[in-house]
Q: What sequence folds into this?
């Protein structure tokens, strides 16, 4: 089993989806820890603003990119390695959250979510592994969510991608360990972002992106496979998902109040809820 844990003097950190939320906060934290960080997203202006706000021993380099385009991610990795240095730590964070209501499902909501959260992660993972394998070491952390532990209201698309990321990371770890690449999965609870602001149910143990970034930075240094926080909440969710389904659905309905909510379709006299992607 690999014991590699990336340090600033060994090379660069690369963070996708760094224009907002957890990715943005983590970039600032890693700069303070001494890393030179390459940040990638589609919003150039936000990335430049982030670059100017960074303070610390490290610095931030901006490289625009679209994780849904595999050729673009190949280009980004090649540009980083050729122009700036070796990537020893990759945090694959880019993602969107589009609420899905079972009574008014739209195909495009699933396709967009899968394209960014799942396929986008794979598009970054493949070149990152290839470059790290050639050097014989590296560290990759994939940002999933506790939504991947079990189904939650409005999470049919989002939760499906996060469950897939957890399973993918578990499966790949066996071989990447032998290649000298440490693979980790990050499963945050509720973090205060533009995405969670759209949740239509109570969010216990809600934390700020800065606290989330601190927890992730600590987990990257410790090297354990799963980085999850706040543990009192996330471990409780793990236990809930061990319950028989009859108890699971009853408990989630009670905790979210979802069963008492009316349907959202116009045929039931309800105004449609706000739709659209939210970066996380």
A:
């Amino acid at each position: 089993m690999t014991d590699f844990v990336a340090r600033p003097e060994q090379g660069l950190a690369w963070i996708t989806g760094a224009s907002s939320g957890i990715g943005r906060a983590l970039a600032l934290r890693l700069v303070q820890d001494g890393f030179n960080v390459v940040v990638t997203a589609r919003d150039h202006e936000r990335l430049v603003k982030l670059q100017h706000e960074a303070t610390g021993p490290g610095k931030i380099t901006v490289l625009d990119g679209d994780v849904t385009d595999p050729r673009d991610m190949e280009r980004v990795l090649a540009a980083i390695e050729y122009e700036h240095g070796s990537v020893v730590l990759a945090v694959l964070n880019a993602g969107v959250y589009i609420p899905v209501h079972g009574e008014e499902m739209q195909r495009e909501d699933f396709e967009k979510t899968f394209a960014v959260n799942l396929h986008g992660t794979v598009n970054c993972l493949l070149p990152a592994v290839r470059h790290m394998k050639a050097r014989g070491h590296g560290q990759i952390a994939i940002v999933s969510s506790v939504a991947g532990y079990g189904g939650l209201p409005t999470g049919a698309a989002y939760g499906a991608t996060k469950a897939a990321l957890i399973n993918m990371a578990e499966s790949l770890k066996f071989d990447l360990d032998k290649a000298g690449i440490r693979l980790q999965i990050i499963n945050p609870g509720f973090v205060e972002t533009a995405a969670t602001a759209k949740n239509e149910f109570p969010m216990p143990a809600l934390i700020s992106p800065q606290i989330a970034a601190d927890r992730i930075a600590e987990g990257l240094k410790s090297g354990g496979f799963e980085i999850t926080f706040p543990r009192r909440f996330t471990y409780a969710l793990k236990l809930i998902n061990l319950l028989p389904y009859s108890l699971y659905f009853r408990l989630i309905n009670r905790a979210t109040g979802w069963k008492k909510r009316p349907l959202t379709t116009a045929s039931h006299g309800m105004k449609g809820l706000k739709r659209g992607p939210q970066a996380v």
